[in-house]
Amino acid sequence: MARAFDEMSSDDGSVRKAYETLNRWLTNVPHDVLDHRRKEAEFIFRRIGITFAVYGEQNAQERLIPFDIVPRIITKDEWTRLAKGLEQRVKALNLYIKDVYSKREVLRAGIVPEELVYQNPAFRPEMNGQAVPHDLYVHIAGIDIVRTDPDTFYVLEDNARTPSGVSYMLENREIMLRLFPELFSLHRVAPVENYADDLLATLRSLSPNGAHEPNVAILTPGIYNSAYYEHSFLADKLGVDLVEGRDLFVKDNIVYMRTTEGPKRVDVIYRRLDDDFLDPLAFRPDSVLGVPGLMSAYKAGNVTLTNAVGTGVADDKAVYSYMPEIIKFYLGEEPLLANVPTWRCREPDHLKYVLEHLEELVVKEVHGSGGYGMLVGPKSDKAQIEAFRAKLKHDPANFIAQPTLALSTCPTLVDEGVAPRHVDLRPFVLSGSDKVRIVPGGLTRVAMKEGSLVVNSSQGGGTKDTWVLDA
Amino acid sequence: MLSRTADNLYWLSRYVERADCLARILDVAQRLAYTPVTYGGSTNEWSSAVLTAGCVEGFVARHGPVENATEENVVSFLAFDPENSSSIRNCFEVARTNARSVRTALTSEMWDVINSAWIELRAFPDKVMTREELARFLAFVKETSLRFDGATFRTMLRNDAYWFSRVGAHVERADNTARILDVKYHVLLPEKEHVGGPLDYFQWASILRSVSALTAFHWVYRDSVKPWLVADLLILNRQMPRSLAACYDNVSRSLDDIGGAYGRQGPAQRLARSTLAKLSNHSIEDIFQAGLHEFISDFILNNYKLGNEITEQYLT
Amino acid sequence: MRVRVRHEITHRFEPVARHAIATLRLTPRSHVGQHVLRWALDVTPDCRLMAEEDAFGNIVHTFSVEGAIDAITVIAEGDVDTQDTTGVVAGGAERFPPSLFLRQTSLAEPDAAIAALAARIAKDVSEPLGRLHALMVAIHKGVAEVPAAPDAAAAPAAKALAAGKGTSAELAHVFVSAARALRVPARQVSGYAALEAPAAFREWAEAHVPGIGWVGFDCGRNLCPTDDYVRLAAGLDSQAVAPMLSTGSIARNTAVARDFFQAARPGQGQQQGQRQQQGRGQRQE
Question: Which of A103, A251, A255 is most worth mutating to test chain C (most C CB atoms within 10 A of its CB)?
Answer without folding.
Answer: A251
